[in-house]
Amino acid sequence: MEFTTRHQGLDMDSLPPEFLITPNPDDPRLTEMVQGIDQTGAAIDTAVTVERPLTLYLNGQEIVTMMTILDYPEYLALGYLLNQNMLRQDDQITAIQYDEELEVVVVRTECRTDFEEKLKKKTLTSGCAQGTAFGDVMEKFEKVTLPREARIRTSWLYALTHKINTAPSLYLTAGAIHGCVLAQEDHPLVYMEDVGRHNAVDKIAGWMFQNNISPDDKIFYTTGRLTSEMVIKTAQMGIPILVSRSGFTAWGVQLARQIGLTLIGRARGRRFIALAGQERIVFDADWRQHAEEEHKHRRKGARDDD
Amino acid sequence: MEFTTRHQGLDMDSLPPEFLITPNPDDPRLTEMVQGIDQTGAAIDTAVTVERPLTLYLNGQEIVTMMTILDYPEYLALGYLLNQNMLRQDDQITAIQYDEELEVVVVRTECRTDFEEKLKKKTLTSGCAQGTAFGDVMEKFEKVTLPREARIRTSWLYALTHKINTAPSLYLTAGAIHGCVLAQEDHPLVYMEDVGRHNAVDKIAGWMFQNNISPDDKIFYTTGRLTSEMVIKTAQMGIPILVSRSGFTAWGVQLARQIGLTLIGRARGRRFIALAGQERIVFDADWRQHAEEEHKHRRKGARDDD
């Protein structure tokens, strides 16, 4: 492998430590100070999130250019390819090469992937993988089974949202960013941020793949809305429980019910709504003991995000 | 044309009326009631936004499947193709056919488009238009010139954000949605919403194209973050001023400065920050007369959105 495999040999039988990966707002590569003016016309300096175009190749094939904060390009590359069904869990990765200067990342496999075979034989609609990918994605989604025995205790839910809200993050420093967290019980394990929400999800998928992490007993938390795409990705990653502080779309709910995914949204402070997979929820906390969400933890400025 | 061209012959020399198009939260096709449970385990009913997959064809070519609320599929189709440079301003559209049952929309042109020619000759990278599209998009972006004489008065900015915040919207009803508004002076003209922010932008682009609306004196407002993609789209649409309640990315700022776009973010209540194109701003309002943003106008729940 061209980069250090972190966390290999992680003992996942006992509960892992919290925040194996967490945002590093002090990393100078991730934010930038810029000058501007405020509503009075006065000159001000403000921190903004860095965002760069990263072009991804699978062997010789150019796949996509993604706007990202470039903190974990290798995990992003792996996760993207997995979540787009361009790479399968059993494909042998021989290298992941990130060139910081060219802003390119190449994922190489032992054998030509199924995706590339289809392209070669022009089985895929020429010109846009996006169109066909949707059909393939739905086909694969319908075959997903999620572990029924997984549980989420409301005490864990409250602990998780509190820990996530109070963790240092680029959001708190510079705004304009999305976050996702992979958790186990009341432990946030991996907290990834990015300008694009799907990038943050893909980085987690890449990390799980790289470290051979089982999804069965995990909880996925996102600041983003519970849309069909979010539900599909979570299910594809094999994670049975999805939580967000944001709202739902009807199709997101429908797909979650179809696949047996536990879907908990509008999770703020002591409140939440579950619209699918309610049977996995264990009401062990007295919700009245918990505080309403403090204003400072509300995400500044915008609507429920994408 | 297969659908009624609205607003044709609009007199744009005088200030048009407000809200030619505005969200209709009462449209039963756009939200759905679903049953679930809350944090006490009690059964509740809640409204969620409808989201459906819409597949877009350009002549015979399948392009993409988009998740959308299906209120303006024709504008979305047109705007998407324009903003992706698959259609040019001078292409002759002969039909836009939306099939509600199949969830398909086909845009037909007089002659084969430049994009299709490239596909046919395999000039485009096979397999993924997204990879090549980025290079093409940046090339086109660099050629954009925006009108220097355009202005935004702070009195207009305050009036606009107030009117937009108080307009009925799907957001207020069901959440999980993004909005964009095309404005002129202190008049919001077209307010589009969608589950995907780029869909809302594309619908406005489609409306402008269909109604032959000049972008030169327009202001574009988004609830979304001011990322590179947002700046590029606004510039491609020829609109010189972009406003958001959300934050910025560094590359968004850089591109805005490069192209001479006025970029105003974190516009909430009486506050805002301008990081590019400040010369177009006329400080005619006494900001201290305006109230701080009321809590109820804060977008519930989530971070600065995508």
Radius of gyration of chain A: 20 Å
Helix content of chain A: 25-40%
Please state roughly what percent of the residues of chain A sit in beta strands, choosing from under 5%, 5-15%, 15-25%, 25-35%, 35-45% or over 45%: 25-35%
- Largest protein interface? A-B, 87 and 87 residues
Mean pLDDT of chain A, as a whole number?
A: 85
Number of DSSP strand runs of chain A: 14
Largest sheet of chain A: 6 strands, mixed
Oligomer: homodimer
**DSSP helix count of chain A?**
8
Helix-strand sequence of chain A:
EEEEHEEHHEHHEEHEHEHEEE
Short summary:
Chain A has 306 residues and is of the alpha/beta class. Helices cover 27% and strands 27% of the residues of chain A.
Give a description of the structure.
Two copies of one chain form a homodimer. Chain A starts with 30 loop residues before the first strand and ends in a 24-residue tail after the last strand. The first copy, chain A, is built from eight helices and 14 strands. In chain A, helix 1 (73-83) crosses helix 6 and helix 7 packs parallel to helix 8 (250-259). The radius of gyration of chain A is 20 Å and the shape is globular. In chain A, the strands form four sheets. In chain A, strands 9-8-10-11-12-13 form a six-stranded mixed beta sheet, sandwiched between helices. With 306 residues, chain A is of the alpha/beta class. Chain A has helices spanning 73-83, 114-120, 129-141, 154-166, 170-174, 197-210, 228-236, 250-259; strands spanning 31-38, 43-49, 52-58, 61-68, 93-99, 104-109, 152-153, 178-184, 187-194, 218-222, 241-244, 262-268, 271-276, 281-282. Strand 1 (31-38) of chain A pairs antiparallel with strand 13 of chain B.
